[in-house]
Amino acid sequence: MIFEKPAPIRDGFGNALLELGEKDPRVVVLTADLSEAIRVHWFAEKFPHRFFQMGIAESDMVGTAAGLAVAGKIPFVTTFAAFATSLANTPVRVSVAYNQANVKIATSHGGVCVGGDGATHQSIEDIALMRVLPGMTIVVPCDANEAYRATLAAAEYEGPLYLRLGRIATPILTKAHTPFKIGKAQVLAQGNDLAIIACGAMVGFALEAAQLLDKKGLRVRVINMHTVKPLDHSAVLKAAQECGALVTMEEHSIIGGLGSAVTELVAEKYPVPVERVGIRDVFGESGEPHEILEKYGLTTKDLVKACKRALKRKEPK
Amino acid sequence: MIFEKPAPIRDGFGNALLELGEKDPRVVVLTADLSEAIRVHWFAEKFPHRFFQMGIAESDMVGTAAGLAVAGKIPFVTTFAAFATSLANTPVRVSVAYNQANVKIATSHGGVCVGGDGATHQSIEDIALMRVLPGMTIVVPCDANEAYRATLAAAEYEGPLYLRLGRIATPILTKAHTPFKIGKAQVLAQGNDLAIIACGAMVGFALEAAQLLDKKGLRVRVINMHTVKPLDHSAVLKAAQECGALVTMEEHSIIGGLGSAVTELVAEKYPVPVERVGIRDVFGESGEPHEILEKYGLTTKDLVKACKRALKRKEPK
Amino acid sequence: MVQTAESVKLDIDHIKEMATQIRRDVIRMIAGVGSGHPGGALGAAEIFALLYGGVLRVDPRKLKDPHRDRFVLSNGHICAAFYSALSLKGFLPREELNTFRRINSRLQGHPARVKLPDLVETSSGPLGQGFSVANGIALALKLDGSRGRVYSLVGDGEIQEGQVWEALMTAAQHRLGNLTLIVSYNGLQIDGEVRKIKNLMPLKAKFESFGWECVETDGHDVVALYQALTEPAGGNPMSTDKPRAILAHTVMGKGVPFMENKAVWHGTCPTPAQAEEALLAIGKAKGFEDYPALSNPDLSTRKGGKR
Amino acid sequence: MVQTAESVKLDIDHIKEMATQIRRDVIRMIAGVGSGHPGGALGAAEIFALLYGGVLRVDPRKLKDPHRDRFVLSNGHICAAFYSALSLKGFLPREELNTFRRINSRLQGHPARVKLPDLVETSSGPLGQGFSVANGIALALKLDGSRGRVYSLVGDGEIQEGQVWEALMTAAQHRLGNLTLIVSYNGLQIDGEVRKIKNLMPLKAKFESFGWECVETDGHDVVALYQALTEPAGGNPMSTDKPRAILAHTVMGKGVPFMENKAVWHGTCPTPAQAEEALLAIGKAKGFEDYPALSNPDLSTRKGGKR
Lengths: 317, 317, 307, 307
Ligand SMILES: Cc1ncc(C[n+]2csc(CCOP(=O)(O)OP(=O)(O)O)c2C)c(N)n1
Ligand SMILES: Cc1ncc(C[n+]2csc(CCOP(=O)(O)OP(=O)(O)O)c2C)c(N)n1
Ligand SMILES: [Mg+2]
Ligand SMILES: [Mg+2]
Known about the structure:
By secondary structure, chain A is of the alpha/beta class. Chain A has helices at residues 9-23, 41-46, 58-70, 81-87, 89-98, 126-131, 144-156, 202-214, 233-243, 258-269, 289-295, 300-313, and strands spanning 7-8, 27-31, 51-53, 74-80, 104-108, 137-139, 161-164, 169-170, 186-189, 194-198, 220-224, 227-229, 246-253, 274-279.
């Protein structure tokens, strides 16, 4: 499956599930009355007896998935980010993470691009909620191709994994053959003046910002940090050492997510200035995705500004 | 109410509630079948019709509290940290935080000093889970006296507030008249060689570590960061500037809590080396509190080691 | 006893027309912005018309009256109907309906208390949350000796959430006789039929086994629904310590034939042509008027479809 | 039909003695470490004796047999009885009971799957979690055509958790006829009587309205309990697509007169003197022996009391 035109990240997921369904009879899929929104309706149609409709009961769904995993299945539980990570937080913590159960939690509606549904449906906390759980792997693909490959990798990986899938159509940044390895970041643009570390739908903005800054003679490294946990320490520390300042960007609160992970690491290993671009600790609201991104400071322009702040703060070499 | 001998932090809370019950008829208390463990049985006895036993249904309890707040009451909802912040995460997010409802969430069993009950009952994530919620204030008193004053302050403060109360008896470090202001850290020991920023039951260890290091001629500042959110930026930045390196300590995961908040801040304002002492991203286990603290690296000795690492990493002035 | 307009002391026609206007508003709001949840909202038009047209003792000029009734919408996704009812009874300017689901609006896609503090008692959207809050309000009213009553609306799919069962137990245990829970019992949810997804039947038996007084009624028959909302079941005096549930049988998409009983219309926005057709089917409401169109119609860019 | 030992094909005496030994173990484990939850564990002694003494088709040497039965303890706090039963049937060394709730032990204060992967199907402790996992296992067994059956135990207080009601609906909807849920129905929880805290009655009516087959039985009468666990209700063939609930009426603290029916013993550790008295009241178990005492008794430092 290869995407060439902008496509919803979740479409990559839905297609990968179809392939997994063929390949591995252990793969089962659960959803909580949101099969189409998270693109598991294709799997449901093709593999009806390995698809479990759980109704609007996310906690029970996650617990049930843990049971399926304990008994040898590879369950993908699917719903919106807020409902899996917040509403079902305890089942994820106890029955999945603490059990080290082989459950894949795949969600849409992480971030603010949810649009009109507003704050309650915009999870700006999901990465933080999952990151604090011991043993939880967190993958945030940046386009539909990466989502496709990440889903296949998730099924192969043994253990609890959180897969955050964007809702809206985003440009295709990775090729179908770009190597995807959980925990191994990709450098999408080279440069030593500054490094942007981004994940998910924000990676596209990072590339745009790097191009804009390139015109001003600045070489900005762009790192696609598709795995937020375990964080690719060497990619971050190399960037800190070689570039001297970092900017993070994520469709998530600046608290607890990728930005936080990066500041934790550099503070303990190699302190450099870090600017975090993300939702600045406020709830979102209804609106068109682009309007929300603009209002809440998640545009290429905001990123460029943050880059300039970071550059100013760099120690003279 | 004044504590002079070591006392469970939660006792300060239970006593303050009694005073609040007299003083303010709007104060109501809810619990989920754990009234004695969180010390609300005294309030229940004295003010039975302002006490609501909600049974083992924490999500509903938090939602009910939000309703009481919406209708003008000042509800304290009480249970173990894991059940309030993880199991009831969505009601806290939606009905309390997003509503800006005047609910106080008070918990025991945050951290690993829970003892024999083991990992599921040891919340090492609660501060992280609450910190990512916009508008949530987080207070972690260091002794029974501070818990007493913090509880009174919480009732006066208008808005969502999380109060984390230790389970075991801890030494008394603050006097009954020590000023307590939400958001304003206290410097308990002066020094410019290094600063330890700690909260809750770890503050005592910080003072011990400072005394040990003092014997080696090192002057270590000890900051009691009783309010983790909003973080006292000026206290942290002043320490970073004047001491050049920081060590944080908390009975919580090193991810997402106080340590994380400090690294976020210094990375954005004044990068210095930071060592984080806390649970290193693993689940806890059963045992005596002191055995667990030892096994998981939360002793004065561990803190001293971290201080030495931080000192080594300081830039020569 | 024959149910007549007189016996329920209500201007039946007014309520019916109000429901019609709510349906018009719902279609125009959702088609106007290009997204939203028409199905459940259309199905709850009579419920909202009755609540704001006669049942709730609330006055837009006395929003702080301690004895006022309270309404908690737990199934927040159907808020188009809620906002419409508020605007029809003077709680919101009619034009404001144009801002529904748009940036900077008070009319969020799911009701937000911080945006409309005196009208939205609690934010909802994540299903299963609002009902617990309604219990809390009812508890507070009892403590304060308020004469106010709390009404809360939930969807049937929503009842699959465990927190709803916790709240059912709470209301019974704390004898919240001042609480009425209305279930919009349309048998559908996003992925299809409730009974095929997670069956709730026999729902009345469930409620009764949870200690509730429970009546079943047609959710579009305003006389029957009004009686259920205001009168005791079986001629007994209104119970003072049992909470009361009304299973209101509704039809998803009611009033728009091509939407009726189709789960796909839970959250699909009609195209402009479909919206036209829907308004035609709904008809005009006597005594009410459409809210004025958006001065800058370019703001409406979307074409309809699913989220 | 008169219930006799023969009619249930079980060594009744053996089961009774095993229950006695479980009670002895529970008291010694908890008093030994100085904390734990004796009340519910004592009350479930017959349940565990029957499960591991005759009902569960499990073999310590064949823990990977796909057709084995599975047991999920949802009310994890009563795990002292669970560990005891495992040790009495060769799944755990007897001496290991000495490590209960201590640092570095596999016998965590609440069961931990990572510590005992083939014996603890899922970690429990936070109430309401395990039952959903049991459903998931039952679903997987059905998919795989396993002959294994899943048994899960919950407390009555635990049933106040909403997730339990979600799981009840799931089991009915997915026709988990291979699942048996046992409720330790002792009427007590930490803060007192279930019915005063959050009443569950009529519990059988509730279960039946949720589509379950439900039998009520004395949880200490091993013959009756065995029949409930293994035989159809009312002479009908064991239903193949309805999940089955057993409301086992138990007595908190059963077997220790000063603990019986007292909520305070839910989570209070007996003092050494009380432990002595308790063991005396329980008596010796024929055919079983106490697990050997700790070689270094200093490890046991606490004096009992509440957590
Ligand atoms: C906790 C939670 N899970 C899932 C959703 C997504 N969702 C919104 S409405 C809905 C279906 C609700 O069904 P019902 O209550 O019957 O409402 P109706 O479709 O009849 O309007 C779902 C699953 C949600 N809003 N909250
Ligand atoms: C979610 C959750 N809330 C609260 C607790 C604390 N707790 C442990 S056991 C218990 C009472 C359980 O009552 P019941 O299930 O009847 O067990 P019994 O006391 O009869 O053994 C409570 C409240 C918990 N373990 N999990
Ligand atoms: Mg419905
Ligand atoms: Mg009980």
